[in-house]
Structure formats: C-alpha cells, structure tokens
Design goal:
This protein is an alpha/beta fold. Helix content is 35%, strand content 20%.
Length: 281
C-alpha cells in the first residue's frame, strides 16, 4: 500500500485536460508519488489513444463502486472520494483533471509526518470577501444568528452537522481541490455511521444531493474533526482555483501570472465548467 498517492478522476470529454494535468505532474513530482487515473472501463482505449506515451496507472471506476445514472459532478465526487476501498493507498490527494501544476512538489506538501496527512481547512474569509464583491455569495447566519458571508458550503455544513454532531461555532471550508483524504477516516465513517444506518456512500450522497447539500470534502472534514482519529494539521488550498471567468479575467487584466502565484501555490485550476479546453493562465 502506498503511503500517499495522487488520484485524478476523468472522463472522455476531459481527456485532453487530464493529459495536461498528468504531464504537469510528471514535470514536478519530485518524490515520484504514485499517480492513478480513475476512468470507466469502457473509456480506457480512448484514453490510451489520447495519452500516447504518457504513463499513468489506470484504475477502473467499477472497482471502486457502481452507481445508478447520476449527474457527472456527483458521480465523480463519489468515485474519487471512495478510492480508499481499492486498498492502494493509505492517503491520497484527489486532483481535478483541470488542474495544472507549475511548481515542484513533494510528499511533505501533503503529509505532516509519516502518519498524519494535512487537511485543507480554513474559514476562507478573504475568498468570501472577494466573492461578495463579485456578487457570488449571499448573507448567511452564523451559529449565534449574526450575519456572515456564506456560500453554498455553509448550508452543506449546517446539514452535515445534523448527522455528524460537531459542536463548533465556526464554519470551515475544506477546499478547494485538491483534497487530501485518509483511508482510515473514510473506513471509520463507513463502519460507524453508514453501515449502522444501512447506507452505502452512494445512497448517502444521493440523499444529500437531493437536498442540495452534497460535498464530499465537507463530509470528510467534519468527520475528521469529529472522529479525532488523526492530529489536525490544517493547510490553505494547494492551488489557485479560478471558479469563474471573472476571476481569471481580473488576473489577466492586471498581468498576474504563474510567477506571481508560485510563492503561495503549486498549481492552478481553470474550472472546466467555464473555460475552454486550451485555455491557460
């Protein structure tokens, strides 16, 4: 079993992005952390055509779980978060295929020590402030009924804390991607919540999604705090995520490029829900 690995979930429409992501990993993966590409079995031959000589370990989605037909974003959350069931890695970093790494990285970027992964976690007030100015968030209520900036994730946390009873006054954002997951924490959640409630992770995810409250990183983060299985070593997001075109256009307008981002980040994401396939920073 690997101590740590990188896990990329992709599908045919994002194959070019996945290739670019993997090639950037090969350039900057200084500790040779194993890399796994999660795809449906039926898509393997097409991915091999796209990837050519670029090497990557392929894992079929079907070896992790099977699901009913689901929206793509929900399906990929289930598959990548539940990679632990393969037994391939004790800790794993789930990387979106629209991620590009531009800076050398090491195991120590993801692991505090041999037994303790970092967890992406923080209040993200600076990010919420920026989003408020761009009219991307609304006013929510904190645990004392006071106004606060809140994104969709705030409502996810409130709902998930009805299930995972963390008595915490703060709202933590456990992102953005890449997320660092630990197999022991996920296994403990299955054995101590899902199984006693006759739920699979897929069914649990569908229930939350039907309420508009699904977030795999929030489930993991809240259970990480609640279970107290691992030392809590929080870090800020590893990459700069451009959630929509306005963020990217602002940086382009002000000539903010990769060299400006390198002191804080090891890569960037131009989310595929708004960016063209060949768009780069």
């Amino acid at each position: 079993m690997d101590k740590i690995s990188l896990v990329i979930k992709s599908y045919i429409p994002d194959a070019i992005r996945a290739l670019r992501c993997v090639q950037s990993i090969h350039r900057h993966n200084k500790d040779n952390i194993p890399v796994y590409l999660l795809i449906k079995r039926a898509e393997e031959s097409k991915f091999k055509e796209v990837f050519g000589d670029t090497k990557v370990n392929i894992v079929h989605d079907e070896t992790i779980t099977t699901t009913p037909t689901l929206p793509g974003w929900l399906y990929q959350q289930i598959i990548k978060s539940q990679f632990w069931v393969t037994g391939l890695s004790e800790n794993y970093v789930t990387v979106d295929s629209d991620t590009v790494f531009f800076k050398d990285f090491y195991e120590s970027d993801f692991m505090y020590d041999d037994n303790t992964p970092y967890i992406v976690m923080g209040e993200r007030k600076d990010f919420l402030d920026e989003c408020w100015k761009l009219n991307r968030v609304g006013i929510h209520q904190d645990m004392k009924g006071r106004d606060m900036y809140g994104a969709r994730i705030t409502n996810c946390i409130k709902r998930i804390r009805e299930i995972i009873p963390n008595n915490i006054n703060k709202f933590y954002d456990y992102g953005t991607s890449p997320y660092i997951f630990n197999s022991t924490v996920w296994r403990h959640f299955r054995d101590n919540y899902l199984v006693p409630n006759n739920l699979s992770f897929t069914n649990f995810s569908i229930i939350l999604n039907n309420e508009g409250k699904m977030s795999e990183s929030t489930i993991y983060g809240e259970y990480y705090l609640y279970s107290n299985l691992k030392k809590i070593m929080p870090i800020s997001p590893l990459v700069k995520c451009y959630h929509d075109r306005s963020h990217w256009e602002f940086d382009k307008k002000h000539n903010i490029g990769i060299e400006d981002l390198k002191p804080n980040y090891i890569g960037y994401i131009l989310q595929s829900n708004w960016s063209e396939e060949d768009l780069e920073l």
